Amino acid sequence: MWIRGFSFWIKGCFLLALVSIISGLEPELGFTRVVFQTKYGDIEFGFYPTVASKTVDHIFKLVRLGGYNTNHFFRVDKGFVAQVADVANERSTPVNEEQRREAVKTVVGEFSEVKHVRGILSMGRYDDPDSASSSFSILLGDAPHLDGKYAIFGKVTKGDEMLTKLE
């Protein structure tokens, strides 16, 4: 019985993936959520491990190490982005050696067909497409000019009203 259910689940996942590709639907979020606590309230993030697996793993490791604790938004452009500061160099309190080691690692650019729209999480980087490390942006509006150029790895699942306050 379990095998049959598992087989059905696999076929269902394949069908869902195929429908998503054909119709251009948003990819499925993984189960893990991360909550950023801000002075305006909490913002919950969901992640796209099937879209940017290396980026998601990197962000999870930084979160587990406490790398984003005492961090801040160093840039907020109304209707565009709220950008989280680089963990290694711009955090409010010093990082320990393990946090620094992980924060300076770069992640290969995992570009996708997912669109840069309000609530999307998108990695910051330099000119090199494989230079993303720990800074990322929360989109505060649609930004089609970023599509295919920056790695999208998740989206806001709760707390959109906090983004409005942040703006």
From TrEMBL:
Record-level Gene Ontology MF annotations: peptidyl-prolyl cis-trans isomerase activity
Alphabetized InterPro entries for the sequence: Cyclophilin-like_dom_sf (IPR029000), Cyclophilin-type_PPIase_dom (IPR002130), CYP23-like (IPR044233)
EC annotation from Swiss-Prot or TrEMBL: 5.2.1.8
Domain PPIase cyclophilin-type: 30-167
UniProt keyword annotation of Glycosyltransferase present: no
Record's keyword terms, sorted: Isomerase, Rotamase, Signal
Annotated catalysed reactions: [protein]-peptidylproline (omega=180) = [protein]-peptidylproline (omega=0)
Signal peptide: 1-24
Keyword S-adenosyl-L-methionine: no
Top EC class for this record: isomerase
Function: PPIases accelerate the folding of proteins. It catalyzes the cis-trans isomerization of proline imidic peptide bonds in oligopeptides.
Family membership: Belongs to the cyclophilin-type PPIase family.
Protein name: Peptidyl-prolyl cis-trans isomerase
Organism of origin: Glycine soja
